[in-house]
Design brief:
mainly alpha, 68% helix
């Protein structure tokens, strides 16, 4: 390793800060993720399960409607209602 990688105390200055990373955006994103987690925790178990199925497992509304024995439209309406609730919870912060 060349000495140019070290500062006068022997620290690895090139590995400490990556100039191409916007730290403010990383922090802002982390805060938003935490706020979303808090909002998700305020949903009912049924609401949370539907959101997980749609957005984390990427299941289609058709698959969910067949599994739950309800219409495709009913699943879509539930999804929309939950997303509206999440928006409201997030705006309260």
């Amino acid at each position: 390793m060349p000495f140019s990688c070290l500062d006068y105390d022997g620290h690895f200055i090139d590995n400490i800060v990556d100039e191409s990373i916007d730290i403010e955006k990383v922090v802002e994103f982390s805060v938003q993720v935490e706020e979303l987690k808090k909002a998700l925790n305020r949903l009912t178990k049924e609401e949370k399960n539907l959101i997980i199925s749609i957005f984390y497992r990427e299941e289609s509304l058709k698959i969910i409607s067949e599994r739950e024995h309800i219409s495709y439209q009913a699943v879509g309406k539930k999804r929309d209602k939950i997303l509206k609730k999440l928006r409201q919870l997030l705006s309260e912060r």
